[in-house]
Each structure stands twice: as C-alpha cells, then as structure tokens.
User: Fold these one by one.
Assistant:
Number 1:
Amino acid sequence: MGELDGDEAKALAGSLRELFNQATALLVEDGAAAPLVAKIRDHLGCELDQVLSVATRLDSWEHVNLQRGVDAYLAAHSPGAEWFGVVGQHRAHHEDILGMLYAARHGMPHGLGAADYSTAAAGPEESVEVVQLGLAPTTAPDGTPVFVGIRGSTEFGPPLCRLEVLAAERGAARAVGAEVERLMREHDAFRRKVLSFEVSEHRGNELLSFLPRPDLGPDDVVLPDGVLESIEQHVVGIAEHSERLLAAGQHLKRGLLLHGPPGTGKTHTVRYLMSRLHDCTVILLTGRAMRLVAQAAALARRLQPSMLVIEDVDLIAMDRGFTDGPTNPLLFNLFDAMDGVGADADVTFVLTTNRADELERALADRPGRVDLAVEVPRPDAEGRRRLLELYGRGVELRADLAPVVEATEGVTASFIKELLRRAVLDSVRAGHEGAPVIGDELADLARGMAAERTSLTGILLGGTDRPTVGAKLGAEPDVVVRARRAGLRR
C-alpha cells in the first residue's frame, strides 16, 4: 500500500476519530457512567447536552454556611432527598461537577456512588458534617426539577467551595441559588461568635477559626477610675440605643483606639468588651492576617452588630511621615474597609497599638474611623494593689501588699500577673498542701524580678527599663481618657 497524501491522511484520521467516539459511547452506555448520566437525565427530563450549571464560588471557610443553606433549602422543598456522589479517579482535576459528568460520558472512569463528606467547625467546640462532593435532587421554587451540588475545596484547586445548581432552565437554577444564599445568611454559623482570621502558607489559604467567648466582669478589669466606663459608653452604649440613634439620623459605626505600653491591659480590655457584648459578632485580625481586612470588614457588616478588632494596628498604619519608603498598601485597605462599611452599620472598629504617636493622622480624619482614643497606662499604686488581689484569687494571699506595691512601681499588669504566677510556683515547689500560700516573700520576689540582672526579662514583661532597683519612672499622665473628634494628638 502506497503512502497517503495529505487529504487522504486527514480523511483517515477523521474516520478513526469517529470510530473512537462511537466505541467510547458504547462503552459508556454499558459501563459505570451509565447510571450516573441516567440519574441526571431522568430527574431533569433532558439529555446531558441540555443541562446547564449556575455556580456560586465562596471562600473555603464559608463551607459550613453553604451546607446550612442547602440543608434548609432541601428541608423546605424535598425533605426526603438523598445525596449521591461521583466516584472514580481524577475527580480532583475537575473543579465543577458538570465537568465531571461530561468527562464520565466521554470515557473518564467516573460513576455513580456515595457522596463524599468532611467536617467543618461550627463553633469553638462544635463541628458538623458537610458534603465535600455530592448532588441532591430537588425542585426550584416554581417546581422545576433541579440538582443542588456542593463541591468543597480540593488539594490542587483554589481555596474555594462551590454551590452548583444543575437544571434545564437557567431561570430555575438562578432562583435556587438565590434562595440558598438567603438561607445561608439566615442560618449563618458565624453570627454572635468570636472569629479569628488566620493565614496559611499552603496555597495562600485563608482560614477562619472560632474562639471561645471570654467571661469577664468589670471587677476583672483594673483601669484608672472612669476609663472602663468611658469605653463602655462609647461601644456598648451606642449598641444599646441603636434604633433611637438611627431614627434621629445619627451614625452607628464607631472607632475606638486603645493605646499604651505593652502589657498594660489593652487586649484584656478588648476581651472584656467581647464578654460584655454577648450578642455581638467579634472578628479578630492580628499579624499577617491583617491583609484580610477587606474580607473581615465585609463579614462585620454582614453579621452586625459586630466588633472588628485589629491588634497592633501600627504594623500597617504607621504615619507616612515616619517612613522614607513607599506607604504600606494595607493602610489604604484599612481606610477603604473602615469607610466602606457604612455609617448606618452597627459595627465597632477597635484598634490597639503600643505606639500611638506614630499612627497615621488620617485614621481620625473622618468620623467612624477613630472617634475615641483611650490610653491604658501603667497602673498606679492603687491599681497595682487591685491587680495583686485580682491575680491572687485562688491562693492564700498572706503577704503584706504595701511593700509589694512599692517594689512594683512602674510595672504593668502583665508583670504583676507573672509575679503571682512565680510566687505560686515557688509555693508548689516548697511542697505546701492545699491552696498555695503566698507570704511576705512576695516583696522579695518582686524586687528580684525588677533587679538589674533580670532587667531584660523585666522589660519584656512590661517592667521598668531603668538600670537600678527601685528607680522610678516619670509621672504618668493624669488624664487617661481622651475623646478626640479630629486628629490623633501628637
């Protein structure tokens, strides 16, 4: 047989391709994909070529809410619906479910099987089962047959989960998707929870964790007189009167800045606010997770009343006059987030910093960014006594506190907390039975922690940075709470 010319070679290739397609179709008809394709076709009443998909992509941490929304939809429209899945190799390479069905029809080793499940957090101590890959037959609100499908994030794909609605009519699929999204918000697992954004190095994954809500009372917070009351009036008072304020045309969004040396109690004060606002959603941003401030602000608006806490905000909001290089782009993300929430939103932005004097002035240029700044100073003598009594609860505190108060001048709340911890440890090591006993040796321990030989440890714990034992710091400001309506004080 002679060589084929170009046209003959093309014709032969076309014939071989057609033969291959027909053979594949016959194999699929008799193979594992037949029940899968038939299940889709029989419920929708059309061939697979006529099936369309309306998909919604969501951040992977929304998987628990997607499951809640779909469960609520199925309970309302098809309570007896049973989930099924797609089995076989190479499923991870297909991002969407409809793509798997087409691949199955064209010979990929996919077939009908059980749905895949995984778990997702629904609270600090609660996890629920979620569909990782599956479909459930149901109907649209107008009775049109549809499938709802859930596809969780995969190892090789982006950190997203998907709602996929399969139908013969686009309008029906869109109606189902819209109703599922509404039910997601109605049954939102994040509402009234304490949430923390985190960042994983794995594919830049964005994570959202549940944290237990603190249980603190006013007696657990040691601040100068009037400070805690001012904070509560600004944060809690507005929340309690939100309806009347809106009716009077007043904005609800507010910004609070807590500033002061490390270890003075800024984070502890935030924890008290979390405890006080038990019906409020709290979202925490720290460290590298600050780059997610836009997502956090959007979530705060969705879940209002809410409080968005950004710790050590100076990491992204240093005054542009302090830097010679380019401005941190996250600063503008922060501005956009704070301004974009809307004045009518019951959202509190709480910022903490150890370096208020280096913060960007524009933070306070507009109401709703920072309209109250509160200094959390090193405790005075009375404050140190109260802290000793607070952290001494649960032990037998026999010590004369006067010399301890004197020996701890200039230190912070964190220093005193560590002082009591070490005293308890010493008591336990000494073999005391029952509750630890702390006597007058507490004053000697305080002097030792403040001594020059442990000066670095003392500074790290919020102690004095003076080189001699008992050296006094400069006087602390008398005015602790400063409400500022225009510009951060320099």
Number 2:
Amino acid sequence: MSDPLARLRVMQGADLPVHGGRTLAYVYDAGDPEIDRIGREAVASYAASNALDPTAFPSLLQMENELVGFACGLVDAPDTAVGTVTSGGTESILLAVQGARDCRPEVVRPRMVLPATAHAAFHKAAHYYGVEAVMVPVGPDFRADAAAMADAIDDETVLVVASAPSYAHGVVDPVTEIAAAAAARGVRCHVDACIGGWVLPYAARLGREVRPWTFAVEGVTSISVDTHKYAYAPKGTSLLLHRDAALRMPQFFASAAWPGYTMLNATTQSTRSGGPVAGTWAVVEHIGDSGYIELARRAFAAVDAIIACIESEPGLRLVATPDSTLVTLATDDSLDPFTLTDELVSRGWYVQPQLSFGTEGPSIHLSVSAGTLAHVEEFAVALSGSVSAARAAGPVVVDVGVVGFIEALDPAALSDEDFDGLLAASGLVGSSAEGDLELPTRTAEVNAMLDVASPAMRETLLKAFLDRLQRPVRSPA
C-alpha cells in the first residue's frame, strides 16, 4: 500500500517555500511557526464543515461575523457597515462588480471606470458579468488620474475603482478625489485594498504617511481586504465590506425555481469549506491587534532595508516609492531584468517579473512580509551577486525575425499546431525523454519573448500553456 503523505512530501519538494521570508510573491510569511501551526490545526478541524448554510454550522457564522467586525475596526467603517467572507481577493472584486451591476438593472450596457493599474481581477469581472472596463491612464507617479477618471464617468457607469495600493507599483490612488467624483454622479466607489487593507491601518498607527482610503472617505461604498495576505491567515479567505446592508443586498443570490432546497448564497460559491474560515479566525484571534502592529513594524522595516539595498546598487532604481509593502524595481540598460530575476531565484529569492505595459518597460515585483526582516542582510548579498552575474551575462536578445513573426500573428487564428510550435519556440515547455512536459528552470529568454508580444498574444500563449499543463495523469491499469 502506498503512503500518500510521504508522496505529498516528495512532490512538495519542487514547490516554492512558503516559510523563510524569501518567497516575495504568492505567499505572506509572518516568520512565526506558532501562527502557522494554529492556522493549520484550525483548518484541519473544520475541513469537513460547510459554510453553505449558516444555520447548520453557526460557529462558522460567528467566526465570519467576528472577522468582519475586526476588519471594520481597521477601515473606519460606520456602525451600518456589513461584510462577507469570500475565498480570496478575486472573488471579493467579482462580487463588488456584480453587485454594482445588479443594483442598476435599468442600465443596458453597464460600465466601470478603472485606473490602468487596477488589478486584472476587474477585467475578469468585466468578462464574466458583461460590464465594460473603461481604462483610464494613470499619472507619471502611477497613481490614478482623478480628474481623468471623473471625466470618464457617464450615465452607464455603475462602479468607479481605486487601489490601496495598486499591485504592480505599490502606490495608493487619490481615493478622496475619486470617491467624491463617483458620489457626485450617484455611482458606487470600490477601493481594492486586498493588499493594503490589513497593513495600511497599522502603517498609519506606526507614524508612516498613508493617503486616505478607508470608509472615512466620503463616497467609498465598498472595500475588499484579503486576510490571507497581511493578516497572515491560511490561503482562501478575503473580506468584502460594504458601507451599509442595502449596498450588499444585490450581491446575494437566492433561487426557489427548482424542486430542491431553496438556494441561498452570499458569495459566488455554494458549498464553502469551513477550514479557511476557521483558520483565518484562529490566526486573527491569536495575533490580535497588538500582534499586528508588531508584524507591520517588521514588514515595513524589511521594506525600508530592501529599498536601501536597491538604491545602493548601480543599475537599479525604484519604479515608485512604495506606500505599502510592495516594492517594484527596474534596471537600466546595463542589466537585463529577466536575467536578474533568474539570478535572484537561483540564489533562493523568488521575485516576480512584470512585463512591459504601455510605455513602461519590464520591472521586478517584491511582496515583502514580516518574515523577510530576519533575512534582509542575506537579500543584500544575493542582490549584489545577482546584479554582477546579470551584468556579466548581458541582455537577452530576441531575434528580430522571431519578433517580426510574433508581431505578424493573429492570436485569434492560431491552430493547436501553431500553439505547440510557439510554446516550444518560446521555451515555455519542453519534453522529457518520456514525452512529459518539462518546465524551464530559467525563464529570462521566455520572458524576453513574451515581452515583445502584444498583450493579446501573451494571453493567448499563456492560456495555451495552461491547457498543456493541465492534462490528466492516468494511473496504470
């Protein structure tokens, strides 16, 4: 008989580490094993519970209401505020868009006004719910242009969006001006604080400058806050907060139009595991307000130290001075950013490359958490060594013929054979001797090729890549 847990441990060996403060994307590490233990045990104890029916598992309802109450205290919510626990930031954003659409049934072609830096989850919501995304260029500081956003609001606008902070650059939009413009037209204003919602309030209490973004700003109608980020809870929870219950009501779904039980859902999901809810509640209970102040202090100390490392390295620069815990850096012509990314990864630091967009070139993104502080001196050494190695390696150059070939392709007209050829040419996938797909260990050349492709071609190629990855593995008979 096989040992599935032993096999799990073997397979997990190929994954990024979720502890140690060196994975600067996807995971958020408090640097405290006790927090991790409490979260895992709570998840396990509620893994079979179902948040579908709050009357069947009232303990989950109690935990959700307490989590919402804690968050309301962070974001200056009025006594009328309500909230919902969701599965993550994307679901919180989807529900904010869906609720804004459904509260205006008279609008035939609903639109939402977004800064160009708004999270891609809003484009996903546009795709799912038929709400046109009107993208407004941002200013040179990468913050939303409030005047341009106000000008973009029309009679079909159902939602206006601001970020606190934006993911790609880590800056807070001018929420006060944006929310005022939305309120003047009777339009909802959603603040995407999935990243900042659990850390910016503590930044302010630590004396750091934070632009207004909470419910204290008139005109803000909803805020999304991820608990699996800087609340350091297990993956799978976020909060969508509304200024009052009437604003939340269109988010709910009910159906009695079938012979089974009357379906009633607060989120896009029906069945919801109680595990993530319990894990989040237990972690928040354990850390508490004073604990989060200390974790925020560590995270911002790490941010400041990393900024100093970047500013001391010739060839590197900050793309924007971060308002929160997200740091974005760029290189000059002496360094290839994608090679620098590979070099950092090879030294045990996972950072996230960001491709060119509009007039801005590629950059490197770091999501810094409290657990990183203990390792900033190691990061400084790794960064210096990576810069030297990337400078010695020189830039990654994509053949002009390949560039022309990619530019001439129509993403909508590619066949499966075209996809296979492009994926192989890009280096996204290779084949082992057994014919299995193999992922590249270094991605500079892959990213350089994707960087010259149009956004539409990138999307098409990466969807084909995902399709090739997600194929069944059949057990031998």
